[in-house]
Design goal:
rod-shaped; single chain; mRNA processing; mRNA splicing
């Protein structure tokens, strides 16, 4: 079980060793308990690939994923850049008023861009969403069909596997019965040979005794 190249196969539709030999069932239960213990401790099977690390090339997305994983709240929205603060000093220097004016122009341009984006979204957004939904529905249908095809293929493979094992199981049972019969016949022949050897020895001794009496 520890080898990563191990390939295990069985005949579950024919083999009944677990029913014939209870100690095998005990070993199987012990092995299952050991594997479950490893899974509970976070150990995976050697053939299970390592977990995929997402967004390795996007630090911001990676940080956001980590924040969502740890259930940390979203940072508060920074509203400072949307404000139009006036110069704090009275009456205010030219530099302060120039900075406030530049900020107001930037805010105005930002609002213009938002209006343009909203107008584009109202014009093209519905159709774009419909097309995206259509593509998602088609992808979902393809995935569901592939899943059903795979399930059907799995059922057919298991059905064929069961039929093959039952057919071959009958042959194995017949061969095992024939093997048992042949072994029994061989044992009977050996016992008969042993009895004949004993009888031959007795007759040889009897022959020797008769020959000695006649002489």
């Amino acid at each position: 079980m520890a080898s990563t190249d191990a390939y295990l196969d069985s005949l579950p539709y024919f083999d009944d060793d677990l029913q014939k030999f209870p100690y095998l069932r005990q070993k199987v239960d012990q092995e299952l308990a050991r594997e479950l213990k490893k899974m509970n401790q976070g150990e995976l099977h050697p053939k299970v690939p390592p977990p995929v690390e997402l967004f390795t090339d996007h630090p911001l997305l990676k940080a956001e994923l980590e924040r969502a994983r740890t259930n940390e709240p979203l940072p508060a929205l920074d509203t400072h850049r949307y404000q139009l603060p006036a110069p704090t000093s009275k009456p205010g220097s030219d530099e302060e008023w120039q900075a406030a004016l530049g900020n107001a122009r930037a805010q105005l341009q930002h609002q213009k861009l938002r209006q343009s984006n909203l107008a584009l979204l109202q014009t093209y957004g519905p159709n774009a969403h419909r097309i995206n939904n259509y593509l998602l529905e088609e992808t979902t249908k393809q995935v569901e069909k592939a899943s059903e095809d795979l399930k059907q293929l799995t059922v057919e493979v298991n059905r064929e596997r069961k039929n093959d094992q039952e057919r071959l199981g009958k042959q194995l049972t017949s061969l095992e019965t024939r093997w048992t019969e042949l072994i029994s016949s061989i044992l009977q022949i050996e016992m008969a040979n042993t009895a004949l050897d004993v009888e031959i020895d007795r007759l040889n001794k009897r022959e020797a005794e008769l020959a000695e009496q006649l002489s």
